[in-house]
Design brief:
Elements: H1 3-25, H2 29-42, H3 47-59, H4 63-76, H5 81-93, H6 97-110, H7 115-127, H8 131-144, H9 149-161, H10 165-178, H11 183-195, H12 199-212, H13 219-242
Helix pairs in contact: 1-2, 1-3, 2-3, 3-4, 4-5, 5-6, 6-7, 7-8, 8-9, 9-10, 10-11, 11-12, 12-13
Length: about 240
């Protein structure tokens, strides 16, 4: 193959690849996939083209195809963090946690400082019902990346799942120290107190949630709860007076 032919092929490949990237950014996934395929037909050794094609199919909800092309990207570049991470996400979407765990572990080996892969490794273990291991992962993530609020949120959610409301409140409170405007934490704390039968505390945190999100979809439900709490307190006070 002459040098002019090689240059022409490279120019065509780059043209298809760059156009695909632009279409991907515009969320024109079908058109982007066509251009990535054209780039691959010219050069089958470029992991970025396979990665882009995998992302297109992932966004088109065709996870089996996404997994195929993302896997090829990792085979061409064994240090391709983004490809391993997206592979893990595809396996989560397909409810294949074992595959997700394998790919998130590899992503963490490549980039141990990125908390996203560690978070989803914990979520994958939750899917396997390995809850103690998931809690350990979230706690380690909190210790190593104390500003990563999603780790607190995920740990608290898991604790609430098993009725460990006091522990969940502690985790959520730690989150609010970092970000006092994280409205969902107020709602979850209120819910924990409500489950524990501590309605006055629940009301206090529900009101804080309403202050931050007065027009939330949950607002009307919360306001109805607050009315019930008031009635409950009135009845309890009446009973005390009668005694």
């Amino acid at each position: 193959m002459g040098s002019n032919t090689i240059k022409q092929n490279n120019a065509e490949k780059n043209s298809f690849y760059n156009k695909a990237n632009a279409l991907l950014m515009e969320k024109s996934f079908k058109e982007a996939a066509t251009n990535y395929l054209n780039a691959i037909l010219i050069d089958r050794s470029n992991p970025e083209s396979y990665y882009g094609l995998g992302l297109c199919y992932k966004n088109l909800k065709q996870n089996s195809k996404a997994i195929k092309f993302l896997t090829t990207a990792t085979e061409l570049n064994e240090y391709y963090y983004e490809a391993f991470f997206e592979l893990g996400m595809c396996h989560i979407d397909e409810k294949i946690p074992c595959g997700a765990i394998k790919n998130f572990i590899r992503a963490i080996q490549i980039n141990p400082d990125n908390p996203e892969a560690i978070l989803y490794l914990g979520i994958s273990h939750e899917m396997c019902e390995e809850y103690d291991l998931a809690l350990m992962i979230y706690q380690k993530l909190i210790e190593n990346s104390p500003g990563f609020l999603r780790a607190y949120e995920q740990k608290a959610s898991l604790l609430m799942k098993f009725d460990k409301y006091k522990d969940a409140i502690f985790v959520l409170g730690s989150m609010l120290k970092l970000n006092p405007d994280f409205y969902k934490a107020y709602y979850d704390i209120a819910l924990c107190f409500e489950k524990m039968g501590k309605y006055s505390d629940a009301a206090r945190y529900y009101r804080k949630f309403l202050t931050l999100k007065p027009f939330s979809q949950k607002s009307e439900i919360i306001r109805n709860k607050l009315k019930k709490f008031v009635k409950r307190n009135s009845k309890q006070n009446s009973l005390k007076i009668c005694k």
